[in-house]
Amino acid sequence: MVPLWTEIGELMPMEPTSRAVPHAWQWGDLLPLAQESGRLVPVGRGGERRAIALANPGLGGRPFATPTMWAAIQYLCPGEVAPEHRHTQNAFRFVVEGEGVWTVVDGDPVAMRRGDLLLTAGWHFHGHHNIATEPMAWLDGLDIPFAHGIDSTFFEFGPEQVSSTETPDRSRSEQLWGHPGLQPLSQVARPAPSSPLAAYRWEHTDRALADQLALEDAGHAGVVEPGHAAVRFANPATGADVMATLRTEFHRLRAGAATARRQEVGSSVWQVFTGRAEVIVGDRTWDLAAGDLFVVPSWVPFTIGAAEAVDLFRFSDTPIYERLHLDRVQVAGQEQ
Amino acid sequence: MVPLWTEIGELMPMEPTSRAVPHAWQWGDLLPLAQESGRLVPVGRGGERRAIALANPGLGGRPFATPTMWAAIQYLCPGEVAPEHRHTQNAFRFVVEGEGVWTVVDGDPVAMRRGDLLLTAGWHFHGHHNIATEPMAWLDGLDIPFAHGIDSTFFEFGPEQVSSTETPDRSRSEQLWGHPGLQPLSQVARPAPSSPLAAYRWEHTDRALADQLALEDAGHAGVVEPGHAAVRFANPATGADVMATLRTEFHRLRAGAATARRQEVGSSVWQVFTGRAEVIVGDRTWDLAAGDLFVVPSWVPFTIGAAEAVDLFRFSDTPIYERLHLDRVQVAGQEQ
Amino acid sequence: MVPLWTEIGELMPMEPTSRAVPHAWQWGDLLPLAQESGRLVPVGRGGERRAIALANPGLGGRPFATPTMWAAIQYLCPGEVAPEHRHTQNAFRFVVEGEGVWTVVDGDPVAMRRGDLLLTAGWHFHGHHNIATEPMAWLDGLDIPFAHGIDSTFFEFGPEQVSSTETPDRSRSEQLWGHPGLQPLSQVARPAPSSPLAAYRWEHTDRALADQLALEDAGHAGVVEPGHAAVRFANPATGADVMATLRTEFHRLRAGAATARRQEVGSSVWQVFTGRAEVIVGDRTWDLAAGDLFVVPSWVPFTIGAAEAVDLFRFSDTPIYERLHLDRVQVAGQEQ
Amino acid sequence: MVPLWTEIGELMPMEPTSRAVPHAWQWGDLLPLAQESGRLVPVGRGGERRAIALANPGLGGRPFATPTMWAAIQYLCPGEVAPEHRHTQNAFRFVVEGEGVWTVVDGDPVAMRRGDLLLTAGWHFHGHHNIATEPMAWLDGLDIPFAHGIDSTFFEFGPEQVSSTETPDRSRSEQLWGHPGLQPLSQVARPAPSSPLAAYRWEHTDRALADQLALEDAGHAGVVEPGHAAVRFANPATGADVMATLRTEFHRLRAGAATARRQEVGSSVWQVFTGRAEVIVGDRTWDLAAGDLFVVPSWVPFTIGAAEAVDLFRFSDTPIYERLHLDRVQVAGQEQ
């Protein structure tokens, strides 16, 4: 038994004071490590994946980017197969460069290409294989630390080979769900908690962002703030986030634009896709380029500036807070 | 005062026995009438629209296609303007042929082209103008009879000229919401009861239907039943129907396919878009071609057969029943 | 086919202009009629119920209190049985005086006593029997006109005798669901569209209203407006209205109080339970006493004044409008 | 950076393997400790509360009953005041014995008596004061560990004295919301994420449980399983759990009854209220009496047997899992 009165300061602070710290990782450091692991570590049953996790320096050496989220660089060499398995953790992949890998989700082969967001929602079997002549590295995002902390994790092995070696340009999920505002009549009666669309293609994301800036140029509403276009990836069957625990977004800043100082309950991980960003998170400042990542812990204020135009991918744990009515946001210059 | 015991048979039948009857209208009859009205009747403030409504023969001469829905052919000559107004009735337009009209919805100009579905949800200002050298005719669908029956109708006049004479290829609503699975971050916090997407373009609908048939060819799930592809037009912000009272769908049948005999609570109106359909509704049978329309009253069994491939647009009042837990469907060969 | 331009005035008015008219019925006129029917008309299979419907004078002689709602006085003599049946129409009974009848809902016997609200939601079997030595009259409310207008009605006969002749003080539904804020763990996983609680007892309603006035006396929030306490009967499993199409409420006005002038989309029927009310609906004014009923058509302004304290039961079709986003309310002195 | 392949076994187990362990605490041990703290530790600003937390032996000495939930014995001497504050953590109190304390929630004084459940949902100001001549001890339950783990905590001091010293029998929240199936019309338009009812009184809980057993005696549905009655405390405005992160229940077992072996994702804390329970959690077995507590970690199987009749209060973190679609339950003898 432990008395409250000695613990209250740490357990019940006046506002969130995360052990996680603002931190950035350079792609130029991460990729060589992934390549080295490609030479040293085989991929297969047991270890399951060749993934190097970003460990937030404030979290005691654990492979957690934030208290709730896992972010890792996964690396797959030509001809390699990451065997099939499934787990209750929600997962996605974001491709900052390269192509040639197909991820097979419940038997549906999904091409992974530069700029794409690929989903593997909880309890779907999935494996990957690389049919190209080059290795491929990408970003994995999962809710592993959150699921671990609340003891909700189930895991099951699938076949050691991927269940389909087809390599179509578009997955079956895209054929069914990848049309704007259109739902397949055969599927609408059974909406699932996760998006039925396994791939969000770069060509659509890019065009959506360009359209918002074009609207701004024409004097119409659409951007989040001046010079700042952004989309949320959504479940086309419900409009909700792509998965119950993770939000995914893409942001584009014009040269010269900057985001308003912002504080949010919950944490986020950002990866620069193209261009350069001047990022301030709490008392840290970085100048980041393509592939670089940074984390924003809960309630730490942050801004992103663009000396030149910059594109950024973002994921966060916001749906957890919103669904539990714990969300709170404060933006400089806006009413609460 | 009226006793129940003499009324119960008509008011509380064993199953729905609509006064509306199965009926079909030929495009070859409708279009000349619309053209004639184009010569005789001006468009402008007061009459507001040059629209000829389909009157179900069972409904006592009222301009109601079914007890809940209005369907009309609207006709606009070159240079004409249908003045702006708004009403609480939900409305859409479906274009079976032609182009050259822009409908301006709350100031956003929306091109109307063959195969497109255009929305004007309740209480949005809207007007139309024809900039082409040819007249244009299209199908209007509204919930006028339903709204009339429950006394929910408000109406307000807007300007006599359309509030924007721009003629862009894509509307602003499409720039914001017309990207598959992507939501503009500036808009996601305020979902409305109606779709924020004003136009569903034929190129997307056509491709979605083709994709379903391609999946069937490859042995995968996707079609509603053999040879029958279908999509529902949806609100991308919520996944719900495009408007609270109206469902809109598009169906494609391969040559040789036929739909299973089906009974539904609620009524629907169908328009053949291309090809020929052999339609049976209750004890009526028709052979219908492009532009022809037919209605299915509540609970009347119907099937659609395709001697040659056929595309059909459909709208129905199903959301009313689903939201009030009054929906019921029976399909031959399926468990209840 | 019918042109819009000649119909638009009636079909699309500037605001709701119901054919239904404000009207009141005196209990002193209704009860003798019910008694007379008790002498002349047997109750049994075929006619099913001895119910005399209030026919709004604006609705062409149809037995409809409003365009959507049925209100009738049902009358059952000692020893009589109203046979079991079920229908998709939602129904309730409100008891303005008397006792001695049990309504049996899906086999659960529910006592009917003065001041109680009893539910028979759509598609539940139900019959009534009178075990007292006196006849009993009560108010039936249903969505018959609405269901009839949209062709959604199914009906099925049950046994000619009630399926249980037990006469418990409390129904099984009350034993399960009649405890404030408590849900039976065996039932929570399957919430239905209608309330699982078949009876809302006068003792609870009376106390809830008295509590609101006591809060007002003590200077605390709780009443709707000065001197006006009111409760909505709710589904304890969801907090929604008791049935998908009907709202039921109870209102209490202190002597000297009056409601603010109010306009609502949708119609309502009120019955005075005790006391006297000075009612103004549109251009009509009535002085009403216990048992008297009046209707408020859609968008017609109304106020209720209480020279002496008055209790009123009310039912309305508001859930239909709210679920379809067609609701609108305007209260004198309040911002829109 | 940390590789996945060395971590996967611990982070992604085949099923939940909580660090928390099954554990029980005897009321006979806890109460003297609380009494001792009553002699030694003052209550007041800074420490805020005299509460002794149950520390699960598997959680490294932290004052956490489970990975998500805090359970503590709070103790207040005659005349003492626990000052007002508010925090985003959700809290409740359950009273196993005693009376004389009022908790003041946003200015509303709420009596605390034996068998009552009292709510203090997140971000409501609350303080306690003891007006009796005896000290009082009770159980506090909060989501402190969960909120701490996800960095969502805000805290604010209120007045050092309680904002109302009134000691009414019923709180204002009960006057408004404590009537079965009745909602105050003045409040229904703004449902909150937490229950508006601050107190769930023992007399209602007791009667609801007795009613379920009476139904079982009469051969009707109602109990969870033979001899096992149970209620969930619910938000009367929505039917949801009383707070977004915590579920609260009360269980009654007849003498001779036992619960089926059950596994659930998520953890729970139980307190015996009256009688004796033979509890098996995983490989631990205890014989527990009034006031004794035990915890069930995620996915650890448990059964409760009653050699004599037993009443138990339970709280769990289940809403977190259900809202995030991470819930899973397995009951011996039931289909999945």
Task: Offer a few descriptive terms.
homotetramer; 6 helices; Jelly Rolls; six-stranded antiparallel sheet; alpha+beta
Biggest interface, which chains?
A-D, 73 and 73 residues
Q: Please indicate the percent range of residues of chain A in DSSP E strands (runs of 2 or more).
A: 25-35%
Unreliable runs of chain A: none
CATH H-tier superfamily of chain A = Jelly Rolls
Biggest sheet strand line-up of chain A: 2-21-18-23-16-15
Structural class of chain A: alpha+beta
Give the % helix of chain A.
10-25%
Assembly state (oligomeric): homotetramer
The topology string of helices and strands of chain A comes to EHEHEEEEEEEEEHEHEEHEEEEEEEEEHE
- Report the C-alpha radius of gyration of chain A, rounded: 20 Å
Protein name (chains A, B, C, D): Cupin domain-containing protein
Keywords (chains A, B, C, D): Dioxygenase, Oxidoreductase
Pfam family, one (chains A, B, C, D): Cupin_2
InterPro entries (chains A, B, C, D): Cupin_2, GDO-like, RmlC-like_jellyroll, RmlC_Cupin_sf
Describe the structure.
- Four copies of one chain form a homotetramer.
- Chain A is α+β, with helices and mostly antiparallel strands and 336 residues long.
- Chain A contains six helices and 24 strands.
- In chain A, the strands form five sheets. Chain A has a six-stranded antiparallel sheet with strand order 2-21-18-23-16-15. The first copy, chain A, has a six-stranded antiparallel sheet with strand order 3-4-11-6-9-14. In chain A, strands 8-7-10-5-12 form a five-stranded antiparallel sheet, with no helix packed on it.
- The longest helix of chain A has 16 residues, at 202-217.
- Chain A is globular.
- Chains in contact: A-B, A-D, B-C, C-D.
- At the A-D interface, strand 1, helix 2, strand 3, helix 3 and helix 6 of A face strand 1, helix 2, strand 3, helix 3 and helix 6 of D.
- Strand 13 (182-184) of chain A pairs antiparallel with strand 15 (228-233) of chain B.
